[in-house]
Amino acid sequence: MGKEPLLQKVRIQEDIESDKKTRVNGGDDDGPVTFVLLLTTVTALWGTFSYGTAAGFTSPAQTGMMEGLNLSLAEFSFFGSVLTIGGLVGAALSGRFADLFGRGALWVSNSFCMAGWLMIAFSQATWSLDIGRFLLGVASGVTSYVVPVYIVEIAPKRIRGAFSAVSMLVMCASMAFSFLVGSVISWQNLALFSNFSCVLEFAGLVFIPESPRWLSRNGRVKESEVALQRLRGGNSTNITKEAAEIKKYMEKLQESKEDGLLELFKPRYSRAVIVGIGLLVLQQLGGLSGYTFYMSSIFNKAGFPNNVGVTIATVVQATMSIFGLIIVDKFGRRPLLMVATGMMCLGSFITGLSFCFSNQTNLQSYALLDNYTSISTLIGVLVFLTSITIGIGGIPWVIVSEMTPMNIKGSSGTLCNITSWSSNWFVSYTFNFLFQWSSCGVFFIYSMISGMGILFVIKMVPETRGRSLEEIQADVAR
Question: Which three-class secondary structure string do you get for 133-172?
Answer without folding.
Answer: HHHHHHHHHHHHHHHHHHHHHHCCCCCHHHHHHHHHHHHH
